[in-house]
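User: Structure tokens for this complex, please. No commentary.
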Amino acid sequence: MNDVLAVVEQRDGTLRGVSYEVVSAAAELGAGLGGDAHVLGLGGPGFASVAGKLGQYGATRVRVGEHESLASYAPETHAAAVAAAVEEGEYSAVLFAGTSQGKDLAPRVAALLDVPLATDVTALDVEGGAPVAVRPVYAGKAFARVRSKASPFMASIRPNVFESEKQESDTAIEMFSPPIVAARIRVREFRAASGGEIDVSEASVVISGGRGMKDPDQWGVLEDLRDAIGDGAALGASRAVVDAGWRPHGEQVGQTGKTVSPKLYFAIGISGAIQHLAGMRTAGTIVAINKDADAPIFKVADYGIVGDLFEVVPRLAQEIRALRGG
Amino acid sequence: MCIKRVPDTEARIRVAPDGSAIDPAGAKSIVSPYDEFAVEAALRVKEAVGAGEVTVVTLGEPSSAEQLRSALAMGADRALLLTGDTGQDGLATARVLSDELADREASVLLFGVKATDDDQQQVGPMVATLLDRPCVTAVSEFAIEGTQAICHREVEGGVEIVEVDLPAVLTITKGPHEPRYASLKGIMAAKKKPFEEKAAPPTQGRIEVERLEAPPERPAGRVVGQGPEAVPELVRLLHQEAKVL
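Assistant:
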């Protein structure tokens, strides 16, 4: 009854990195509530062999639903399957990833189960035997401590905020046969974006460019820095350059774009408008590169370099490659 | 389509000293920016199809009438104000809206992908689930083709082109078209457009906000140096001190 269910995410049969964070958060919340953490993984045939390793992150039970219709994300199909698993398990809390997929899925499950949902939480506690969550509002200009009067407590967690921790536990893997509801949305085609495979809201390193980049054709210097950093890095953008049509909206960081919490954030040629700062101030470490020493971005940056970004950024890529090489 | 009144995104947000609420002093209210994109999308589709009507609905305090008038001035045809408050409980909001919208035969129900105050990003897909209609989230552009909507959907790493049968619910994100400004003529015309106001059935939100807090202050940073010569020291700090490289 005090168990916590972690709903994990896969793409093309591979677990998304945030899944480990969801399982670890569930294990910690479960410990606080006096229960265990269970995992629910939905995927195509053979997914059990992939999902099984989530036991190493503190789950005592990994429940796997395999079906061709679950191989790629189909909103109604996945929502019905998750809702069935939650009802069967009598959980006290259910956690999702606060990814674009998780934010599509969790509200549907919440509505099916008639349970309210807290989106994008950045901290979880137990008080008086019940979960309490902290979540950003106004894109991080304030934080709300919230409880749910309903059971189970349902939330999505913001990527990159919760630590994922390997720990030994005896894990049982169980097959779960969910009801299969037909999908009503048909994907005709997928067009990959130039920014890279990882979404800016999930990247562990974000390299954002602003008006100081001067020209949309100059983005090569940022792409080179991203490639120097490698795995986990993604490009971001300020509202000014998205509004100017230089970069796609999917990259926009700020209150009318994405709120991000990477471990490392580069603000390059970005002055630091309030609505931009709101979207990135929960980053672990912030680096600002700007030619204007008075730019507000330097007030929130941990480290700053005042100078011409077209000289600083290529050097930075070069030094990072040297560090990696050595 | 549904919109929400929120504080201006350019505004500083101050938490009242007792943590119970946001201090509204000085913050002007606007249509939530994503809802404004949704209004624009609705008007464009109406213009492309050459028929139909755009009804704009909100659930909120009586002063939300101002935001409905803005949408009418942009070109929406009629407005419905449901007065009530559900706090941060998006499901309670979704119930009020779905009860109200169930009998209206809207072939497309639009929402902004999220409101820029609560950031819950959930009401659209919840309404769709409660009404048992298909829902496409994070749509940057869409067009009506016969009995279906063709949507460009923003997903991690790119754009999906998806099709969905109508009636459907779409949540709208920033797309290629800036929301239009209301013309003076539009503002005058808005005053004569049908405007209905009624109290929402009393609902108890089940998300309880214990308190609001200002974000933790970031410790003052330091400027490592000037120009490219400062880069080796920056990389050393990122590697050894911050341990993020």
